[in-house]
Amino acid sequence: MSNVDLTQLIDWRREFHRCPEFGWSEFTTTARLITTLRAMGLEVLAGPKIINRDFIYGRTPALVESGLARAKANGVDDALLAEMDGLTGCVAIFDSGKPGPTVALRFDIDCVYVQETAGDEHIPNRDGFASKNPGMMHACGHDGHASIGLGIAKWLVENGSRLTGKVKIIFQPAEEGMRGGRPVAESGIVDDANYFLGMHLGFIAKSGEIVVNPNNFLCTTKVDFRFYGAPAHAGAEPHVGINALAGACHAATQMLGISRHGKGMSRVNVGVIRAGEGRNVIPSYGELQAEVRGENEEINTFMAQQMHRIAEGTAHSFNLRLESEIMGEGVDLTNDKELVELLTDIVKRNPELTAVQQRSFGGSEDATTIAKRVQRNGGKSIYFIVGADLKAGHHQAEFDFDEKQLKTAVDLFIGSLQALMAK
User: Fold this and answer.
1) Is residue 1 part of a domain?
2) How far is CA 367 from CA 3, 5, 252, 375, 392, in A?
3) Is 176 labelled as part of a ligand binding site?
C-alpha cells in the first residue's frame, strides 16, 4: 500500500469531471495537467514533442477552435497554449538519475458525447461536480485515469530516490474513436521504453477484481464515407438529380451484411448516416460513419476491405463521387507473460483484491498501439483492468464509478514500478 492520499485523488478526479472535453479539444485539461505536474517539479513535454501530426485522425479545425476558445475562457495562459501548438495531451518524465529501465505508463484524458443526467441521485449532481460543458461527459472513467496518473507522479517525486531508471507518464488525448494512440506512438516518445503499462477502470470487472491478463482486444478501423451526387427538383426534374441518400442507404445495408470471418471474432457497424437537403430536393450528399473490428489484423483487414469495396461499388452503380477518410485505428494485444506474472504477484499480496487471469475485453483500446510499439522495439507490455463498481454502464448518462478504486490503481502501478526499477 502506498502513502498516496485517496482524498487528493478524488479531488483531482472530480475537477476533471467538471470540465470534460472531446478528443483533440482537451486544452483546459492538458493545461491543468501540465501546471500540476510542473508544480511537482517534473519535466513535462507537450505539443509536437509527443504528437506526430502525420498520423492524426479525426481532428477538425472546428473541434480544435472550440477547445481553444474554452481554454481561453477558463483562463489558460496564452504561453501554455502556444507551447501546445494546437495539440493536446502531455508526457511527464521522472528521471531517477541512476541507470535503469525506462517504464512508460499511459492514461487517457478525453470524454464522450453524452449529456450527463440531471437526476438527484447522481453523485456528481448531489456533490456538485457534474459536467459544466453541455453534451460532454466523462462517462468512461478517463477523469479517473488522469487522476491516477497524477497520483503516481506525486508518489514518484516524493519517493523516487528508491528507484533507478526513468518513468514516462503519458496523458493521451483522443482515445475515444481510437484517434490519439498512433500519433503518440509515432512521435517516438516510447521508443526507449523497456516496459509499458496501461489500464482501465471498471469495464469488465467489479471492485476488488483485477483482470491481470484480459484477452480479445479487437483490431478496428473506423471510416467516414462521403457520397456526392447532384441536387434537382424532386417534382419537376428528378431525372437531373443523382441521389446520394439512396446510395448511402444502400451502402449501409450492404455493409451490415458483410459475411463474418470464420477464423475469429469480427464486427461491423454503421453508426451514423446523414443525408439530404430538403423534402423536395434530390439529395446531393450522403455520409456514413462506419467501423469494423476483428480478433486479429488479418480479420480486421478482411472486414475493412469488404467495407471499402461496398462503398466503391455503390458509388459506381449509383453514379456518385466517393470520398473516404480513416478516422481511427486500433490493434490487438497479447500481454507479456513476465508482466502478467509480476502484476499477479502484486495483486495476491493484497487480501482485498482478487486476480482474474483472463476475461474477454471484447472491444478495442487505443493504448494497444503504443503497447505494441514498445513490444516491436524489444520491450514488454501489459494492459489490465482495475475493477470498479459502476452506477451505470460506460458511455451512459448515469455513469459513475467507485472512487476508492483510484487508490487501488495507483498502488498497483507503484508496486509494479518498485518491482521493475528497484535499486
Assistant:
1) no
2) 28, 27, 29, 13, 24
3) yes
